[in-house]
Amino acid sequence: MKCPAFAAVVTLWGALVLVGPAHAAEQGTAPRADGFAGCQDAKSDAALAGSLCARFSAPLDYAAPSGERLELFVRKFPAPGRSAGQVWLVAGGPGESGASFYPLLKTLRAAFPGYDLLVPDHRGTGFSSRLCQKEEAVDSAGGAALEGAEWATCFEALESDSKRTRAFTLTHSARDLSALMERYSTGRKTWLYGVSYGTQLVLRMMTVAAPRRLDGIVLDSLVPPETTEQWDLSHRSAVVDEVGRAVLAKCDADPGCRARLGGSAVAAMQGLVDDPKLSEAVPGGRPKLFFGALLDSPELRARIPLVLSGLRSGDLKPLQQVEQDLEALGAGFDRFPQSPVSIPLVAVISASENNARPDLTQVQVESEAARFLFVSSLPGQLVGRTSLAYPRDEWFGKSPTALPPVLVLQGDMDPKTPLAGAQAHLRLLPEAAGVNLFTVKGGPHFLLFTAPDCFKAAVSSFIQKRRAPRAACSL
Predict the structure, then answer these.
(1) Is residue 60 part of a domain?
(2) CB 3.0-4.6 Å disulfide test: which of 114, 153, 233, 407 passes with 84?
(3) Where in the sequence is the signal peptide annotated (predicted)?
């Protein structure tokens, strides 16, 4: 649904030696009857204490189940005491592993009390089989992230083995998720949570291969409809700019903010992007991109007028502080070996599923960006990636015919998956089971992380009563 520091938190829309029965002796823990075994990294990392791990074998291509296979990794955090059931947590991206949930266990425990938390790594991410098997290995030069010469050799391998590359599809990943849920089902209550790209994956699974037991679904930062060009990745800068201008307009409507800034926030931002010397002071020399990254955090975006005021007066301290805080925001998500985002998978999925303009050129990207005050890097990253794309299959743009109760959590200041896009998607979903939209006023993307109190209140109510709270939530 993805500034470098924030990449581990939200991408486009976040070393285990042994985790399976075949390696139980090395792990030092015998596999349990349910296929899980103690995780070796749980012994050395308090954040993972008590977790259990398993690997599941799945077809590379579900149309050829007897052909090549890959491994899917899943980590389980057992509930304290007696378990009430399971919650499956589906990460965003694409390219983000389940490690993006590890720093958020406290919030998840409060929202889903008494439940086991199961966290899979999508095919191509984390400890599951990777697109570039050598270059993305955790024991390679750059670890799970590509480094130096690995970029060239990785993408050469993707091109040379295009059949394997094009098997890392959204639909195959959806079938993976269904197979995992069936394999590790306990027969008790089962809930499914997806965020950003994870909402697209969850809905594709419910369309293609819904699991037999599912009591409800929570969709955090729902993606727009797949067939709607207005909000696809190639138009991400327009989405970011709309939220950024709303932040500036809020300052302009506040006499105190205008006075502290010494005038209009919109004019100050325009003056910054038009002044090459001022722009050089901003990290990367690209103020539109840097300030766009601040929109993912309510606390950081609120400091945009202060940073603009400092730049205008020659005081760089507010800018330097917000840069440090932006880095710190993502630091907790980068500490696990499987944390690095898989850029190869980002390239394959985004080019195939979420780019309505495959012929987009760099000239177009720059021309469109010229009229914005805030931009995303995504449109430029889509240029020239079509060689890795796979053909869209029969499930593209389709909606599930049936759903259990659904809770959609959406921020009205989301710079990645806009509220209007989520509302358009909701109109396409079946209504029989009840779809609850809970809007967080001032909420950005990934509300589990950016609005934890609102998240806990909404999810707890949904789990208990099958509906969202009646009271609104604001940041």
Answers:
(1) yes
(2) 114
(3) 1-24
